[in-house]
Amino acid sequence: MLPYSNSLGISLRSVSFAVYSISTAEVIKAHICLFRTIASSIYIPAIPDIENEFQVSLTVALLPYSFYVFGQAWGPLLGAPLSETFGRRGTYIPYMLLFALGAGFSHSIASLIVCRFFAGLFGSPVLSVGAGTIADIWSQQDRGIPMAILVLVPFLGPSLG
Predict the structure, then answer these.
(1) Which DSSP state fits 40?
(2) For helices 109-123 and 47-54, angle between their N-to-C axes, nearest 10 degrees
(3) Backbone angles phi, psi at 11, to 5 degrees
(4) Terminal C-alpha separation, the chain
(5) 12-160 to CATH, choices 1.10.3720.10, 3.40.109.10, 1.20.1250.20, 2.60.120.430
(6) Exposure pattern of 56-86 as b/e (b: 16+ CB <10 Å)?
(7) Which residue, among 60, 151, 155, has the nearest Cα to 108 in the 3D structure?
(8) How far apart, in whole angstroms, are the C-alpha atoms of residue 86 and residue 14?
(9) Which residue in 2, 5, 23 sits closest to 14, CA to CA?
């Protein structure tokens, strides 16, 4: 019998590597979900600065927040069917990071509104596709804890943001 193998001849190193890589994927997915929901509420304390920076009213300064939430509403409607057709990897590619950076470097309120909308649109499918990814990776008897973590993490975001 080989070292690091069980009685069936299965290498324990490959099993532990598989569990490690699956756990790493779950941690990354949970962080993306956490950051997407933090990004919705982290904007609120900056509203007075947005008003001063762009010389706009309170109503206009709230538009980037509103459009971000609007993008989060439409993202799963577009991303979930596309993930079933073309694979889930496309929903985890960080396009939303590009638009979040664009929002951070915006020089006008219009570009801030557009970038925040697309950051919400491209970031939110992770929230709806995460459960499907867990169902793909974990067996039915083992997916309880990863599913509980994935459901818990988005609720932490607004309170931490």
Answers:
(1) H
(2) 140
(3) -70, 125
(4) 53
(5) 1.20.1250.20
(6) beeeebbbbbebbbebbeebbeebbeebeee
(7) 60
(8) 28
(9) 5
pLDDT tens digits, residue range 75-113?
Answer: 889 888 888 888 887 777 777 788 889 999 999 999 999
Length of the chain: 161
Q: CA-CA distance, 65 to 99, in Å (whole number)?
A: 14
- Partners of 11 in the β-ladder: 5
Q: Which tokens in the block code for residue 55? A: 């010389």
pTM recorded for the entire structure: 0.79
